[in-house]
Amino acid sequence: MSRQPLKKFYQLAEAGTAPGADGVSHVVRLDGRVLKTPLKETLVLPTAGLAAAVAAEWQAQGEYIVPDTMPLTQLANTMQDKAAGPDRAAMNAEVCKYGESDLVCYLATHPPELVKRQEDAWLPLLHWLAEDKAISLQPVRGIQYCAQVPEALQALQRYVADLPAAAFTAAQAVLGATGSIVIALALADRRITPEEAYVAACVDELYQLEMWGNDSIARERLERIRHDVTGAARFLALCRD
């Protein structure tokens, strides 16, 4: 049974402050009442900028509340209820599974133009991960599965476990959009821009569109990826504001 849309029940959404465990906390109020997370805890935002942006999402709602139009709210809820909560260990394990067969580790064998685009987009990320983070995932040619060495996967697990909740939340969102933990970590670390992350994740699809012409379904999927990646980057930037 589909869930009925929730009718807007407030007039004013605004950012503010409230007493917190570490002093003053940034919150959002709906007609004076503090906004709660799905676990019914006060949603505490790390910066005034993020609180203002979340309040703007709520203020922009029409007659009904549409959660899909509030990506910052969704990410903030995930950060507090899950990434900074008891679910984090399980989430770490799910995220790290992608390292076993990451997108950027499987380079095409042909055609030459696609191979070059993949190399230009992916190999610098693998080099950065190895040199800067001591996580040496090895690329291969072709699509046949090739197991990564246990030491690399263990290093990845340690790195992901140490990520702050905001960076982990953004990385998880980018991972869900792109299918690559390497791209997700590079964006969370500011190694690449949101546009570079989008291009790296969609090298194959963008190449196919150039070769065979526009495909409305494929283009819509690509725009969703760009939207999700950009939203995650904005969330992380606001957390650091």
Overview of this protein structure:
The protein contains 10 helices and 7 strands. It is mainly alpha-helical and 241 residues long. The strands form 3 sheets. A 3-stranded antiparallel β-sheet has the order 2-3-4. Strands 1-5 form a two-stranded antiparallel ribbon. Helix 4 (112-133) links the parallel strand 6 and strand 7 (140-141). The longest helix has 24 residues, at 216-239. The protein starts with 5 loop residues before the first strand and ends with a helix.
Give the helix level as a range of percent: 40-55%
What structural class do helix, strand and pairing data support? mainly alpha
**CATH architecture classification of the largest domain:** Orthogonal Bundle
* Total count of strands: 7
Strand order of the largest sheet: 2-3-4
The helix/strand order is EEEEHEHHEHEHHHHHH
- How many DSSP helices? 10
Outline the low-pLDDT stretches.
Answer: none
CATH class of the largest domain: Mainly Alpha
CATH 4th-level superfamily of the largest domain? ATP12 ATPase
CATH topology of the largest domain: ATP12-like fold
Number of domains: 2
Distance between the termini: 41 Å
User: What Rg do the Cα atoms give?
Assistant: 20 Å
Strand count, sense and barrel status of the largest sheet are: 3 strands, antiparallel
Mean pLDDT: 95
**How much strand content do the residues show?**
5-15%
Give a concise summary:
By secondary structure, the chain is mainly α.
Topology of helices and strands:
Elements: E1 6-7, E2 13-20, E3 23-30, E4 33-34, H1 48-59, E5 64-65, H2 71-83, H3 88-96, E6 106-107, H4 112-133, E7 140-141, H5 150-161, H6 165-178, H7 181-188, H8 194-201, H9 203-212, H10 216-239
Parallel strand pairs: 6-7
Antiparallel strand pairs: 1-5, 2-3, 3-4
